[in-house]
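Sharing a chain and its predicted structure for anyone who wants a worked example. Both blocks are below, sequence first, tokens second.
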Amino acid sequence: GFHNYPNSYFIVGMVMNSKVDAKDYSYVRPDGRYYDGLVKRGITPINTEPKFDPPVYVRDMEGKKTIYGTASFGHNHPLRQAHGLSGGACPTRGGDVSTYPWGNAGAGFPTDYEEITPICDGIVVDIKYWADLDKSWDSDKIAIGNAGYGTEQVEYMAHANKYGTFEDPYLVENDIKNPQIADFTVDGKIVMEAPEKLEDHPSVSFKLDFGKIGEYFEFTEVELDGPQGCAAEEEYGDKYRKYNGAERISTAFGIILLLVVYYCS
């Protein structure tokens, strides 16, 4: 399952391939059995230099642009703690998400290179279940992280820790440092263990400036009778994040939609 949860989540995967420069999204670490196997077969890897800020090509714009990830867990996660969630900062390195935000956690799976760092919200994939309503999806203001605040800047909160330290022996031996490391501590040390009481652990704040005020689709506000959970949450308790009924319906709808497309194609 995704991020060490026994029950899998609905995951959207995306493969990026450049028609302009093959090195844009290609990387093979020049070390280990895979690399040795390529060399043995006379195959030269396209690129052996990691790109911490990869390029991207934007429609109707000339030349390459650079993708920069945010320091936050997500642009739509300014106050995770208010919802009983931990963390708040981008892990800033590849590898197993493990015990995030405690310890030296990565952003993905144990098989990931640490130097393939995440670009938290550098690319955002919209899964649209409805057509244009009162506003167009072509707008660059729809559903950005400050849409509900009415301000260009939004304050984000994160549990204090040092995120992104490279520990892989290859990286350490070659003195390769993470340029995106995010140190939100006073002493520069990694907080290895979760506190007994989450509210006792210090938090830090930082701001993101979106450069424009976001917008959202009009909606009808409803009230629910008590908190909405799920069977997994009841079974495993705090191991699972809480999610509401709307998210469950959206996930189910997405799965049904995929099945319809599959069998009708």
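Comments welcome. Confidence is low (pLDDT under 50) at residues 239-265.
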